[in-house]
Amino acid sequence: MDFTRRDFIRSSLLIGSSFLLSPVSGLSGQRKDADWIPAYEKLEMEGKLAQRIKQAYALFENCQLCPRKCGVDRNKGVKGFCRAPLKPVIFSYHPHFGEEMSLVGGKGSGTIFFSNCNLRCIFCQNWPISHEGKGKEIQDEDLADMMLHLQKMGCHNINLVTPTHVMPNILNATRIALKKGLHIPLVYNTSGYERLEILKILDGVVDIYLPDMKYMDGDKAKKYSAGASDYPEVTKKAILEMHRQVGVLKLDNQGIALRGLMIRHLVMPNRVAGTEKFVKWIAESLPKSTYVNIMAQYRVEYKAYDHPEIARGITSQEFLEAMDWAEKFGLTNLDPQSVAIRNVYQRRRSN
Length: 351
Ligand code: SF4
Description:
Number of strands: 10
Strand content: 5-15%
Helix content: 25-40%
Largest sheet: 10 strands, mixed
Number of helices: 13
Bound molecules: iron/sulfur cluster
Shape: globular
Order of helices and strands: HHHEHEHEHEHEHEHHEEHEHEH
Distance between the termini: 62 Å
Radius of gyration: 20 Å
């Protein structure tokens, strides 16, 4: 029997459901801000969304969708650094309960995992998806159906993981889904390695930007992210632009994210991620109330075993110094889970 689109959607949901944790009780999927509408819906009402899609799709001819600027013609199936074909490849999609609490709520973040990646870090935790491109190629209409399924399941948002190389498809799918009733925030969950010109196309489409800030030192980025020595400078500019577009994080009256910037920073062993410089930069460049998630979950994956500097997990001391720096530079909106981890480590240290 042929494996149809519908079969793929069903099986992806089954794959996804195996990762589910228990939902947080007390937060329903109902949005309380009745007047709220997603950014992309406003843009459609202004008659601008179709033009953005056209503008985005034109980029495939001489692909410059990301700072790698390969210049390949993806319309003809030529693959660049990210190895992505013209159509999106999806590994799985499902309600995800492992994201930030304001994205997860009671019904989960509607996460769609895109295969392939334009950064290709050697410690990637999703390397079979990002490096090897495991997944199934689909049409934009299928992507729209997935968004609608996730909304129907009660998810609080559509969380697009590694979206950069398929941005035009995402825009097109969003418009198709909008016409069929999509009405939840779009989360752009990116490595942060984004071109300003591309982000301008997304202005007024994306509700929540969720970028990483992986390194502050170009040499580390070059070594661990496939030669991307410009990562710190490019990503700093990208984050400032994201903030200009969506501002600081806004929640509804149940604590669910509606709009804004949420920055992730993974603490790495031996201060590889440059955490002190990172929090200092945030404090000096953005409001101190910017939402920052200082993450403790680095683990040795893929080719990280070959590099002694990153071939171990972080110590509790490394995480505590990261959180101390955030406090020292006055950041006021740290992810509650990182604060909880810090409190546990502090209690253990004092016992
Ligand atoms: S999206 Fe892929 S093909 Fe396009 S510039 Fe980036 S790495 Fe190259």
